[in-house]
Amino acid sequence: MLLTLIRYDIIRTLRRGFSVVTPLLFFTMIICLFPFAIGDNARLIAPGIIWVAALLAVLLSIDTLFTKEWETGCLDHLLLSPYSLTQLVSIKLLSHWITYSLPLIIISPVLGLLLHLPPPVIKTLMITLLLGTPVLTLFGALGAALMIGIRENSVLLPILILPFYIPVLIFGTSAITTPGSLPLLGALLLFSIATLPFLITQALKIGVDT
Amino acid sequence: MRRAWYWISQQGLSTQSFYKTSGRLLPFITAGFLVLFLYGLIAGLFFAPADYQQGDGFRIIYVHVPSAFAAMAIYFCMTICAVLTLVWRIKIASLCLTASTSLGAGFTFLALVTGSIWGKPMWGTWWIWDARLTSVLILFFIYGGLIALQSIIANKQHRDRAVSLMTLVGAINLPIIHYSVIWWSTLHQGATLSLFSESLIAPAMLRPLLAMIAAFMLFYGMIVCLRMRNTILVTDMKTEWVKKVLQ
Amino acid sequence: MINMMFHGYGYSILSAYSMTLIVMSLFWIVALLSKRQATKKVKRYLSQEKK
């Protein structure tokens, strides 16, 4: 059932067409801005640039995560369904990560080459992104869950969620220079996988109840 | 036992009884704050001996440490209120929560500003991205997010529960701030005060500091009480007891 | 003069303390003002109700 749901969710997102590519384009364009602004020195801070761009792209893709379900009333039905909402939320997040974050990680080597990153650094960068972007998706989803039922939310979500992105950014970028931080990033990932789906469910319940 | 608990949650923690009790306590809190604050101010500025390393510059800690302490203590208090709101839906807890956010942000701001004023002559820089400073900055951002969240949601119950949930998530930052000076020993010095071992500070310097910390906490209690009372007065406008209170 | 009194740290001390005092008194003043406002609002409501 799990695989079916993931496949169904991914197909449904892909059918939406261009919106899937938007965060990817955004990611690429943000990264291309830096060489223009900073010049040749951009390669010195390239891992940081890619990380910040990935963070913003995830934030961009996530804010409408639950809006459709909320507007169509689908969420109320899911709350009443026999399946646990935490499980459904986790599946939804997994498929969101596959459709939106995984492409970012896949094209990051190309962008790393554009910024003159050496191949071994690109490899560690990809590993940190692989460990870090799920955390970004999870925290972003918590914000998105709190946003349902609130109208003027375009700036609120980044303000609410960015403070929690800072530690991920710190561990993610420091893991590139000092490999000792990589386990910390992994611990952060495990911790957020363990706690956040539950909190997201609670946030959804708060939104639906009131 | 169960009945007692029921009574506490229905009567003892009602807005009316809070209004009455806090009205009786407020003069004492205000007086205590004024006495301790004035003592701490004067003793800290003039009677405490100058530090042998930092000279008179160390006197900034009499506003810096209490602000930082208050910033964290307020968040801790908010976390407790958040649990009480989410689990037992106690009304005065959610009132306390929403009244606390901007105070917490104010004290975090003070801690950051006085810290950088202290850092300029001591470290030679206004700001450095050290673990303690960064984690307190994150605390400030979290407070900012909470204020934004609570000001945007119109429905009161929705607002209280959403803010509570976010407060709980942000509480993860508190131990990080506390242990940041131990885990990453960077520029910021370690804790000077400790409950269980002797403090690393001379008694003549310590007394005004403790007085100031107590004064800041009393100030927090005072302002929160004032704010909660204002909100209660307006929301309970249509009840009999408000009529009696105001006549 | 203040700077001399605290051996070169006077201005830092002055700015830190005044900042604290300003922020704290702002909180206090705003709380007292909103108390006045709240009382006014409730009294207006009560007088309207009487009519």
Q: Could you provide a short overview of the structure?
A:
Chain B has 247 residues and is mainly α.
Q: What's the order of the H and E elements of chain C?
A: HH
What is the CA-CA span between the terminal residues of chain C?
A: 64 Å
Secondary structure tally: strands of chain A: 0
**Tally of DSSP helical segments of chain C:** 2
Q: What structural class do you assign from the helix and strand content of chain C?
A: mainly alpha
Note the gap between the termini of chain A. 31 Å
> Spans of chain A of 5+ residues with little confidence (pLDDT < 50)?
none
Biggest beta sheet attributes of chain A: none
Which helices and strands appear, and what pairs or packs with what?
The complex is a heterotrimer of chains A (210), B (247) and C (51).
Chain A: H1 2-15, H2 22-38, H3 46-62, H4 67-72, H5 74-80, H6 85-114, H7 119-147, H8 156-177, H9 182-209
Helix pairs in contact in A: 1-6, 2-3, 2-6, 3-6, 3-7, 3-8, 6-7, 6-9, 7-8, 7-9, 8-9
Chain B: H1 2-12, H2 15-47, H3 61-88, H4 91-123, H5 131-152, H6 156-170, H7 173-183, H8 203-235, H9 240-246
Helix pairs in contact in B: 2-8, 3-4, 3-6, 3-8, 4-5, 4-6, 4-8, 5-6, 5-7
Chain C: H1 2-5, H2 10-50
Description:
The complex is a heterotrimer of chains A (210), B (247) and C (51). Chain A has one domain (2-209). Chain A is 81% helix and 0% strand. Chain A is built from 9 helices and no strands. Chain A has helices at residues 2-15, 22-38, 46-62, 67-72, 74-80, 85-114, 119-147, 156-177, 182-209. In chain A, helix 3 runs antiparallel to helix 8 (156-177), helix 7 (119-147) runs parallel beside helix 9 and helix 8 (156-177) runs antiparallel to helix 9. Chain A is globular, with a radius of gyration of 18 Å. The model of chain A has no long low-confidence stretch (mean pLDDT 87). Chain B has 247 residues and is mainly α. Chain B has a single domain (23-246), classed as Four Helix Bundle (Hemerythrin (Met), subunit A). Chain B contains 9 helices and no strands. Chain B has helices at 2-12, 15-47, 61-88, 91-123, 131-152, 156-170, 173-183, 203-235, 240-246. In chain B, helix 4 runs antiparallel to helix 5 (131-152), helix 4 crosses helix 6 (156-170) and helix 5 (131-152) packs antiparallel against helix 7. Chain B is globular and about 60 Å long. Chain C is rod-shaped, with a radius of gyration of 21 Å. Helices cover 88% and strands 0% of the residues of chain C. Chain C has a domain at 25-51. Chain C has helices at residues 2-5, 10-50. Chain A binds chain B through residues 142, 146, 149-150, 152-153, 155-156, 159-164, 166-167, 170, 199, 202-203, 206-207, 209-210, and chain B through 86, 134, 138, 141-142, 144-145, 148-149, 152-153, 155, 157-158, 161-162, 165-166, 168-170, 173, 176.
